[in-house]
C-alpha cells in the first residue's frame, strides 16, 4: 500500500501559491532545495510531472492543475481533523472580524469569505475593505481580528501569504509616452502608487495623476474609460484591458501579508481560505 506524504503535498501547494520555491521555503521553514526535493519525490510517487519550471517562471502542468484541487482538499481535511481533535470539539466561533485591502483580494473577496464560512467553526464573518493603510489601522486599533493587506516598506511583520507581481494596464496600447504618463491611482498613501511613480521616475518618464479614487473598483473603471494607466495584481487585473508591460518600466512584486490576533488554527484557516480563493 502506498501513502502520499503530507509534507510533500504542502510543499507543492506552497510553491504554487507563492509562485516560487524560495518563498515557499520561507513560509514552510525550509530551504529552496528542500522544497524542490519534496516536490520531486511527490512527482515520482504520483508518476506525473506537476510543475513546469524555467529560470523565470513556475507553472502548473496539466497533471499539476488536475492534482491541485485534490491536494488542497487533502491538506484541508488534515488541518480540520487536527483542529477539531486539539480543541476537543469546542463551540463554534460566533464572529470573525476581517479587514481586507482592495489590492489584496480584489473581486475575489466573496470567494474567500465563502471559503471561511464553509468551515463549521466560523459561522459569521464580518468584512471591511479599503486601502492597505486603512486596514492596518483598523487592525492596529483592535477593530478587526485579522487583516490581509499589501505590505509596505515601513513594516516587515505579518505572515507572508503570497508574492504579488504587478502589471501595467490601460484601455489601449502603443501610446506615445513623449508627453508623459497619465496615472490612475488610489488616494492617500499606497504602496502600488509609490511603486508606479518610483519606476517612472527612475526611467526618466514624466507623469501626472489624472485620476485618484477610493477603491480598486474605481481605478478599474477609470482605466477602462481611458483616463490613464495603472498597475494591478493578477487578482485585480480587469478583463479586456491592454497590458503595457513592454512600454513602461518593470514594477516590483509586493508581499500580501496576514496580521492576526486570532488563535493559530483560525489564523491558518484564514490563510488557507485566502490562497484557495485566489
From TrEMBL:
<comment type="similarity">
    <text>Belongs to the LysR transcriptional regulatory family.</text>
</comment>
<keyword id="KW-0804">Transcription</keyword>
<dbReference type="InterPro" id="IPR000847">
    <property type="entry name" value="LysR_HTH_N"/>
</dbReference>
<keyword id="KW-0805">Transcription regulation</keyword>
<dbReference type="InterPro" id="IPR050176">
    <property type="entry name" value="LTTR"/>
</dbReference>
<feature type="domain" description="HTH lysR-type">
    <location>
        <begin position="4"/>
        <end position="61"/>
    </location>
</feature>
<dbReference type="Pfam" id="PF00126">
    <property type="entry name" value="HTH_1"/>
</dbReference>
<dbReference type="GO" id="GO:0003677">
    <property type="term" value="F:DNA binding"/>
</dbReference>
<keyword id="KW-0238">DNA-binding</keyword>
<dbReference type="InterPro" id="IPR036388">
    <property type="entry name" value="WH-like_DNA-bd_sf"/>
</dbReference>
<dbReference type="Pfam" id="PF03466">
    <property type="entry name" value="LysR_substrate"/>
</dbReference>
<protein>
    <submittedName>
        <fullName>DNA-binding transcriptional LysR family regulator</fullName>
    </submittedName>
</protein>
<dbReference type="InterPro" id="IPR036390">
    <property type="entry name" value="WH_DNA-bd_sf"/>
</dbReference>
<dbReference type="InterPro" id="IPR005119">
    <property type="entry name" value="LysR_subst-bd"/>
</dbReference>
Amino acid at each position: 500500500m502506498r501513502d502520499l506524504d503530507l509534507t510533500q503535498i504542502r510543499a507543492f501547494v506552497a510553491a504554487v501559491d507563492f509562485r516560487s520555491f524560495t518563498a515557499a521555503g520561507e513560509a514552510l521553514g525550509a530551504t529552496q532545495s528542500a522544497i524542490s526535493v519534496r516536490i520531486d519525490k511527490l512527482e515520482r510517487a504520483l508518476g506525473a510531472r506537476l510543475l513546469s519550471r524555467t529560470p523565470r517562471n513556475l507553472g502548473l502542468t496539466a497533471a499539476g492543475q488536475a492534482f491541485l484541487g485534490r491536494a488542497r482538499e487533502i491538506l484541508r481535511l488534515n488541518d480540520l481533523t487536527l483542529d477539531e481533535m486539539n480543541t476537543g470539539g469546542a463551540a463554534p466561533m460566533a464572529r470573525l472580524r476581517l479587514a481586507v485591502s482592495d489590492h489584496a483580494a480584489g473581486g475575489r473577496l466573496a470567494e474567500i469569505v465563502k471559503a471561511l464560512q464553509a468551515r463549521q467553526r466560523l459561522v459569521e464573518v464580518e468584512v471591511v475593505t479599503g486601502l492597505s493603510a486603512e486596514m492596518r489601522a483598523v487592525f492596529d486599533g483592535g477593530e478587526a481580528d485579522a487583516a490581509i493587506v499589501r505590505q509596505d516598506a515601513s513594516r516587515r511583520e505579518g505572515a507572508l501569504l503570497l508574492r504579488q507581481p504587478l502589471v501595467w494596464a490601460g484601455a489601449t496600447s502603443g501610446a506615445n509616452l513623449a508627453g508623459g504618463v497619465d496615472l490612475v491611482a488610489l488616494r492617500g498613501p499606497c504602496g502600488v502608487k509609490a511603486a508606479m511613480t518610483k519606476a517612472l521616475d527612475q526611467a526618466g518618464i514624466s507623469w501626472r495623476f489624472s485620476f485618484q479614487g477610493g477603491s480598486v473598483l474605481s481605478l478599474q473603471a477609470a482605466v477602462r474609460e481611458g483616463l490613464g494607466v495603472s498597475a494591478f495584481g493578477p487578482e485585480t487585473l480587469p478583463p479586456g484591458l491592454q497590458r503595457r508591460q513592454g512600454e513602461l518600466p518593470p514594477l516590483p512584486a509586493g508581499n500580501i501579508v496576514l496580521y492576526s490576533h486570532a488563535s493559530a488554527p483560525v489564523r491558518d484557516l484564514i490563510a488557507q481560505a485566502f490562497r484557495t480563493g485566489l
